Amino acid sequence: MSSGKRTSPVSIQPLHYADVPLCARITSSAFSVDPHTIVKRLGREPFDMYTISQSGFLNTLHRKTYIYVKAVDDETGEIVGHAGWAFRGLDAELIPWVGPGDAKPEAEEREESQGKDTGSKGDEKEDVGDGKEDSIDRLHALENADMQYWLSNIVPTDTPCIFIVGLIVSPSHQSRGVGSALIRHGNAIADDLGLTIWVHSSHQAYEAYRKFGFETVRELGVDLDEYAPRGPQEEEEVMGEKGSGRWGRYVIRYMKRASTKSGSLNN
User: Fold this and answer.
1) Residue 201: which of 241, 145, 257 has the closest Cα?
2) Cα–Cα distances in Å, from 109 out to 53, 63, 65, 112?
3) Of 202, 208, 200, whose CA–CA distance to 177 is shortest?
4) Are 69 and 63 in contact (CB under 8 A)?
5) Cα separations in angstroms, 107 against 4, 15, 112, 217, 230
6) Which CATH architecture has domain 15-257?
7) pTM of the prediction?
């Protein structure tokens, strides 16, 4: 059934440092209605998708083993999505890297330098008094352990591959073909190099990846109510029916897409 939204013609362009604040805001906005993210914000440690996204860009945008792009609406010139891919086990000279066309902001350079010299204050945890691990800590631990299992036991460690490290569409442009354009862009890179792409998919993105040839190789089902310190409020999104008083079950899927190129390096 049609969503009723028209397709937005977009251009896929390299992402620059000047784009980072807007792309981080797009990430934060897109995840603001994700029940899984909402629950994780209820922990004692801050879980700020803007800061997480911004830090990810600033820490890796200059690295030649990462490719970042933005989707730009051809009609308005507005950035309406972004994506990133990380390469593992491949000669960097083979990666079609196009880095940022501008310099890293000086303030960020200073903060990074100071962090190296004095140690990051972010490593200091707030004293919560009772010393007990909260339920969101347990959720993070569960998901981190499962991801490590995926990386160590399912993804071949001796074969070059690509990981999707983020693929986000602005809420104002979802269901308008932007995500499809970004996925196709990454798939084309993978096929040209003969590599498998792996992705740690959110519950909501699963169908989009499946549409473009990704297959599920592992799932982690999470009962959000087991970890949430409180029930959902009226205005908050849930996985099931609103008003049920439950957050619902969220499924994280680990997916792969083998290259369509003959003679591929993939297993």
Assistant:
1) 257
2) 17, 15, 20, 5
3) 208
4) no
5) 44, 19, 9, 42, 39
6) 3-Layer(aba) Sandwich (3.40)
7) 0.86
**Nearest-angstrom CA–CA distance, 254 and 264:** 21
- Confidence check: pLDDT of 164 > 60: yes
User: Per residue in 231-253, pLDDT tens?
Assistant: 999 999 999 888 899 999 999 99
Checking if the pLDDT of 265 tops 80, the result is: no
Please, what is the angle between helix 20-31 and helix 49-60, to 10°? 140
- pLDDT, position 263: 52
Q: Which of 202, 239, 240, 204 is nearest to 219 (CA)?
A: 202
pLDDT at position 266, please?
52
* Residue among 170, 161, 128, 145 nearest 27 (CA): 170
Q: What is the DSSP string of 157-199?
A: TTS-EEEEEEEEE-GGGTTTTHHHHHHHHHHHHHHHHT-EEEE
The DSSP 8-state label assigned to residue 6 in this structure reads: P
How far apart are alpha carbons 164 and 91 in whole angstroms?
18
Domains in the chain: boundaries? 15-257
Measured distance CA(227)–CA(156) in Å, rounded = 32
Measured CA to CA, the distance from residue 85 to residue 261 in angstroms comes to 19
Q: How far apart are CA 87 and CA 68, in angstroms?
A: 12
Q: How far apart are CA 183 and CA 159, in angstroms?
A: 22
* Residue whose C-alpha is closest to residue 84's, from 98, 101, 73: 98
DSSP bridge partners of 164: 85, 199
Residues 6 or more apart in contact with residue 41 via CB below 8 angstroms: 47
- Whether 125 contacts 204, CB under 8 Å: no
